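Bit of a strange request maybe. I'm writing a small parser for structure token strings and I need a real example to test against, not something I typed by hand. Could someone generate the tokens for this chain?
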Amino acid sequence: MKTETLNLNTSRGATTAHVARPDNDTTAAVILIQEYWGINDHIRDIAGRYANEGYLCVAPDLYRGKLAKNTEEAGKLMHSLAIEDGIETIRDAIASAKRAYNVQKIGITGYCMGGTFALRAACEISEFAAAAPFYGDIPEENVLKKLTVPTLFIAGKRDAWINPEKVNGLKEAARKYNLPVEVVIYDADHAFFNNTRPEVYDPEAAADAWRRVLNLFRKHLTIAVPTGA
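Reply from user aminoacidic:
Good idea to test on real output. This should exercise your parser:
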């Protein structure tokens, strides 16, 4: 596994993406969207985990180099980031990854704020083959109803932000519009996947969620190899 930086350009300014590459060439990629802290060591670690599973992992920096030192800074950075800005950066990350690495199948995942952007991007961007947002906010119904890619939504029952009411709203919309969404709820808190935060980390829930996400991506990001006549 090796890491490198991919330069991105959007109408709102240049940024970069952290890229983790597997040892062997692949045409399957995972776009990884940051938590509200920014592109920190934890996000780079997750990118490396995907590379070790054989995926090219691209984590675009939605904050353009800024990194929060505490929850107050993280909240300010998140609230100052327009949805349209984040979505444009994700679009450019996809286009740049296609040019640089010849990727053919792309999935998206994200945590916390990144889960919000991952789910919305899956509704608005046609290139994705699968999505796995973790405890992100639910887009409005007129956006959500456009979702066509297989989506695994991971939630925590004790999450005060993405609370059971919001998760039930997602379930109801999925039934109403026959959306390809599976919702998995763990008896855990918000950010339970983050192993750098012992106050919320739940190793059992995190391990099971990781297994489910890998199963989703193996199923939908695999490239069919022609067998010949």
